Every structure is written in structure tokens, then in C-alpha cells.
Amino acid sequence: MKRLLFAAFMIISSIVNAQEYTESAPLGFDVARQNIAHGKIDTLVYHSETVDTNRRALIYTPPGYSTNNKYPVLYLLHGIGGDEKEWFTQGQPQVILDNLYAEGKLIPMIVVLPNGRAMKDDRAAGNIMAPDKVQAFATFEKDLLNDLIPFVESNYPVLTEREHRALAGLSMGGGQSLNFGLGNLDKFAWVGGFSSAPNTKSPELLVPEPDQAKQQLKLLWLSCGDQDGLINFSKRTHEYLAANGVPHIYQVIPGGYHDFKVWKDNLWQFSQLLFKSAD
Ligand code: FER
């Protein structure tokens, strides 16, 4: 009897989870392929008035990139233990995106990987939880809006309307994306928070005017592993959005932890929705 109850519980819980879990990446999505076109990763250096120093970001331009075209831009943010190289070294977004381009599944876009710790020493060294370092993740809003985005827009062939600008990130970067994206709807129409951290503003501050968010957002994506201790920050945001009729995707990943297995899968899914007409 106990065994039967357990089996019934497992079946029911898998159905409940399945409703929130749509599609996950197929095997090999993150394995480099030789026989396809590849995008290019470079480092850019921009002057930050906000921090009063020169700062670095990585930039991925897609296969077939040409300055004769104009591209939408995804700004993709890292977590508290990372810097502008975290996605590149641990998530290899260029491999995931190259593979998706080869399958014709992406709108060509530029991806910028900033350093979201806006302070003079922006390395993830020493005590990464130190108050000044955590504060620097909030200061990055000014650096992004006033320094980095203008630099990208005057040095690369990019589309500059809000409909062509996306902001997403993991953990601290997820909180930043929700805070800055939803706080600047005149700048961003596509927003994604992956396993967002405690820096995520409370829902009422994040979306004080649900009707405006409803009208302006093309995509609002929230996801988190069900084994991630930070899931409540996504869950409470989802519940508020649902209660206030703001369309969004909320994905709870069964067995998902706070790691790049989840975030790579998130990028695979999220990137395929970007800059396409959203329903
Ligand atoms: C915290 C727990 C986790 C916190 C930040 C994090 C600022 C961020 C985690 C990450 O970015 O992976 O209490 O406080």
C-alpha cells in the first residue's frame, strides 16, 4: 500500500511539474560542432562615467555577421561569483547559439556579456558577498544604461528601439535583469530572470503598474530549479504577475539546482523566443 501511494505521488507530482516545464534542450545542444558556421567572441573596452574607469565586456557576433546589417542585442548577465567571462567559461553560450543558428532557430542577434559588478575592482575576488561588491551590482544599472549601451550602439551595427533590446541573466544577474528591465520598460521589451537572487526587488516595486508592463513587454521569462534555495524569489514574482494579469513564462525545472545545467538550458529556450513576434 505504501509503495502504491508513493508511486501515485510520483506520477501526480510529475504531471504537476510537467505543466510548468515545457521543453528542454536535446542532447548535444551544448557540444561544439565542426561542420557549421561559427560566430565570434571578442572583448570590448568602454569608458564608464558611472565608475570613472574603463571596463570590459565580451561580445558575441553571430555567424554571417556583417556591418551592412543591423542587429538586435541581448545583454546577458552573470552571477555573484562571476564576471564578464562567467557565461563564456562555464556556459559556452557561443556553442549553444552557433548550434541553434545552424538549425535556423534564432533571429540573428548580438550578445553582450558585461561585467555587472560596477566598481573599480570588478573581479570576483575576496569576499564576493561584501556589501560594496553587492552594491556594485545595483550600481550597474547606471553603467549599463548610460555607458555600455550607448557604447555598443555607437560602435556596432545594432537596432536601438526597445523592441530590439533584451536583458537576461542568472542569479544576481537575474535579479538585475528583472530590476533594470522591468524598471526601464522604455529601454527593454524582452526580460529574463534565471534563478534570480535576493537582489530581486519585491514584486510590488518591480511591477508597480501591471497594465503598463502588460502593454510594453514582448517577453517576461522567469525560471528556477525546484531544488534551488532561491526559488522563492521567482515564485513570489510569478504569483504577483499571475494575480495582476501580466503575461509571462514561469518555468520550474524539476530536479534543477543553482547551476549552469539549468542556465544553459534556459539560454537555449529563451534565445529561441527572442525578437520573434510573441504570443
Ligand atoms: C544571497 C544569496 C545568493 C545573495 C546573493 C546570492 C546578495 C547570489 C547568488 C548568485 O549570484 O549565484 O544572500 O545576497
Automatic annotation (TrEMBL):
Coiled coil: none annotated. Keywords: Signal. Residues 1-18 form the signal peptide. Gene3D superfamilies: alpha/beta hydrolase. GO terms for molecular function: acyltransferase activity, transferring groups other than amino-acyl groups. Pfam families: Esterase. The keyword Signal applies. InterPro entries: AB_hydrolase_fold (IPR029058), Esterase-like (IPR000801), Mycobacterial_A85_antigen (IPR050583). PANTHER family: DIACYLGLYCEROL ACYLTRANSFERASE_MYCOLYLTRANSFERASE AG85A, ENTEROCHELIN ESTERASE-RELATED. This is Enterochelin esterase-like enzyme. It comes from Mangrovibacterium marinum. The lineage of its organism: Bacteria, Pseudomonadati, Bacteroidota, Bacteroidia, Marinilabiliales.
